[in-house]
User: Which sequence fits this backbone?
C-alpha cells in the first residue's frame, strides 16, 4: 500500500484537471439548458448557495429538485442566459472558478462577474457556493496556473 503522502508523477495533475472539467461541464450544460447533464454532474444531496440572494426565493437550494428550481429562477426571466467559465483552478477538495454570467432580454443584456467554489466528490458537485469575484480571482492567481 502506498503512503498517503506519496505523489505519483502525472496522476495528481490528471485528478485535479478532472475537477476543473466537472466545473466547466456543469456551467456549459447550464448555459445550453441541458438539465439532464447538469443533474448528472451533481450529487443528489447537493447544496447551492447563490451570491445574489435577493434575486432568488431562498438563500440555499438543496438536492436535485433544488437545482432545477435554481436553474429556472436564474434563467426563466431571460430570453437567453449564459454562465461562462473564464478561469478555473483545482483545489484540494474541488475547484474554484471565475464566471461571467449574462442574461439577454431584448437589447438589454445584464452582465455580472461571479466567483464560484465547488466541492467535488466522486466526480460530482456536492456543494456550490457563489462568491465575490475578486476574492476568487485572488485565489486563482495565488495558486497553480489556471486551467
Assistant:
Amino acid at each position: 500500500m502506498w503512503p498517503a503522502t506519496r505523489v505519483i508523477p502525472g496522476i495528481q495533475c490528471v485528478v485535479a484537471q478532472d475537477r476543473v472539467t466537472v466545473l466547466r461541464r456543469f456551467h456549459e450544460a447550464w448555459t445550453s439548458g441541458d438539465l439532464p447533464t447538469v443533474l448528472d454532474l451533481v450529487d443528489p444531496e447537493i447544496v447551492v448557495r447563490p451570491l445574489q440572494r435577493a434575486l432568488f426565493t431562498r438563500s440555499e437550494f438543496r438536492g436535485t429538485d433544488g437545482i432545477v428550481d435554481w436553474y429556472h429562477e436564474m434563467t426563466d426571466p431571460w430570453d437567453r442566459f449564459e454562465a461562462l467559465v473564464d478561469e478555473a483552478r483545482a483545489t484540494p477538495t474541488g475547484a474554484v472558478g471565475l464566471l461571467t454570467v449574462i442574461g439577454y432580454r431584448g437589447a438589454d443584456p445584464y452582465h455580472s462577474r461571479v466567483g464560484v467554489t465547488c466541492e467535488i466528490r466522486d466526480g460530482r458537485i456536492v456543494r456550490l457556493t457563489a462568491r465575490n469575484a475578486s476574492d476568487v480571482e485572488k485565489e486563482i492567481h495565488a495558486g497553480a496556473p489556471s486551467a
Q: What stands out?
A: Residues 11-142 form a domain with the Nuclear Transport Factor 2; Chain: A, fold (CATH 3.10.450.50). The beta strands are 42-49, 61-62, 80-91, 94-104, 110-121, 124-131. The chain has one domain: 11-142.
